[in-house]
Task: inverse folding
C-alpha cells in the first residue's frame, strides 16, 4: 500500500466514479482501476460495489475511507510544510555566538536575513567559543561562530574575520605612550581575561608561556565592555581584538599594537561535517558566505 493508492481511492469515493476520478487526477481509467484492484488484493477485501456504471463503497471501503482520508490529509499537510521549508517560508536555526562577537558583527547580518526570510527564526545562544564548538559537535546547535582554528575532521567552516589582539592599559600606565609593545614586557602585569570557556583565555596564556612567563590573572569576565571598564579603572591590563578596541573609551584607556609576537584572532562559522543541516541552516550558511567572503 502506498500513498498514491490511497489518494486514488479517496478521489473515487469522493466523485463516486472511476472515470471522473481518473480525469481529475490526469491518469487513464485502466491505470486507476488497476491501482484500486491491487489495493483490494493487498487488503483482501473489495472496496467498491460495481453496479453497471455506478459504484458505492462496501463496508470495508467505508472503514478504509475514514482512515485513508486522515492519511491523505496528513500527507498533503506534510508536503505543504516541506514545500514551505524548501522555499524557506518557515524554519528554525540554533546558532551559537560568543558575546563579544554578537554585538559587533551580527545584528545587521541577522536583520538582513530576517528581512529576506521572515518565516525563519534564529535562536541565538551566547556562550564562549569553547562551549559553542562543543554544542555544535554534540548537535545542540546547528551553526556556531568560534575562534579558529578548528578540527577540520569534525567541522566544515569558513573564515569571516582575521585580526590581531591589541594591548589595553590604563591611561597613566608606563606603556601608555609607546607605539607598540612586546608581550614579554607584560610579565609583571596583572591580566584581565575572558573566562575559561572562551578560546582567547587559553590562547593568551599559551602565548605568555611561550615567551617565558605565566600571566597573573586577577579578573575574568564574559563581557568585553566590563573587561575594558576594569582596565580603565586601573585594575589590570587586557588583550582584545582590533574590532573591539575601536569602541574603547580612549580617554581612560591606551590601546597599543602588540608585537613580538603578533597574536592572531580569526573568527569562523562552523557546522558539523557529518550531520544533516536543515534548509534554513544551509541557506544561512550560503547567505553569510555571500556577506563575509563574497561567495
Result:
Amino acid at each position: 500500500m502506498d500513498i498514491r493508492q490511497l489518494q486514488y481511492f479517496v478521489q473515487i469515493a469522493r466523485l463516486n466514479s472511476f472515470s471522473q476520478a481518473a480525469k481529475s487526477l490526469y491518469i487513464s481509467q485502466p491505470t486507476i482501476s488497476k491501482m484500486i484492484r491491487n489495493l483490494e488484493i493487498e487488503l483482501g477485501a473489495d472496496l467498491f460495489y460495481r453496479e453497471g456504471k455506478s459504484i458505492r463503497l462496501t463496508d470495508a471501503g467505508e472503514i478504509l475511507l475514514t482512515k485513508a482520508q486522515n492519511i491523505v490529509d496528513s500527507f498533503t499537510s506534510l508536503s505543504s510544510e516541506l514545500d514551505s521549508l524548501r522555499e524557506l517560508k518557515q524554519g528554525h536555526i540554533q546558532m551559537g555566538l560568543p558575546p563579544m562577537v554578537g554585538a559587533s558583527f551580527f545584528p545587521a547580518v541577522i536583520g538582513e536575513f530576517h528581512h529576506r526570510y521572515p518565516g525563519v527564526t534564529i535562536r541565538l545562544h551566547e556562550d564562549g567559543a569553547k562551549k559553542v564548538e562543543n554544542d555544535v559537535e554534540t548537535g545542540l546547535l546547528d551553526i556556531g561562530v568560534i575562534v579558529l582554528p578548528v578540527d577540520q575532521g569534525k567541522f566544515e567552516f569558513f573564515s569571516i574575520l582575521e585580526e590581531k589582539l591589541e594591548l589595553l592599559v590604563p591611561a597613566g600606565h608606563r606603556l601608555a605612550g609607546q607605539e607598540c609593545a612586546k608581550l614579554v614586557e607584560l610579565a609583571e602585569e596583572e591580566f584581565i581575561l575572558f573566562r575559561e570557556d572562551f578560546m582567547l583565555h587559553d590562547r593568551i596564556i599559551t602565548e605568555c608561556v611561550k615567551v617565558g612567563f605565566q600571566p597573573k590573572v586577577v579578573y575574568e569576565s564574559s563581557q568585553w565592555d566590563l573587561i575594558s571598564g576594569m582596565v580603565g579603572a586601573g585594575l589590570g591590563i587586557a588583550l582584545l581584538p582590533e574590532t573591539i578596541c575601536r569602541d574603547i573609551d580612549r580617554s581612560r584607556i591606551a590601546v597599543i599594537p602588540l608585537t613580538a609576537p603578533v597574536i592572531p584572532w580569526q573568527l569562523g562559522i562552523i557546522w558539523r561535517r557529518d550531520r544533516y543541516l536543515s534548509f534554513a541552516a544551509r541557506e544561512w550558511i550560503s547567505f553569510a558566505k555571500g556577506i563575509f567572503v563574497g561567495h
Summary: Residues 59-86 form the longest helix (28 residues).
